[in-house]
Design brief:
The chain is mostly beta strands. It is built from one helix and seven strands. Helices cover about 5% and strands about 35% of the residues.
Length: about 100
């Protein structure tokens, strides 16, 4: 996800697609930061990873109800983390170019 922040440094509107059917636009990024899966560091399943938090500006399509990975509640103005564990299937710039 650090690539997303590098490829969109001016926070131009992006259209973001997920496999659960969610499609939204965002022009606000809260940046890229490191986080973890909330386990103890000595736990063998402990993971650190990067996320990019973006603010939902407009929803084009809501997640499919009943889909295993459907977002609990998605609404304009809320933040969503993009990471290897919540990876979009496609990210487009305003002109349709794929990032």
């Amino acid at each position: 996800m650090p690539e997303l922040a590098k490829m969109n440094p001016n926070n131009y509107p992006l259209k973001i697609y997920f496999k659960n059917g969610l499609v939204f636009s965002s022009s606000t990024s809260m940046g890229v930061y490191e986080t973890n899966n909330c386990l103890d560091e000595d736990d063998p399943n402990y993971l650190e990873y990067y996320v990019c938090a973006v603010k939902i500006s407009k929803i084009f399509h809501s997640p499919v109800v009943g889909c295993d990975d459907a977002a609990e509640e998605v609404k304009c103005g809320s933040m969503i983390e993009l990471s290897e564990f919540n990876e979009p299937t496609r990210v487009e710039q305003n002109d349709g170019r794929v990032i």
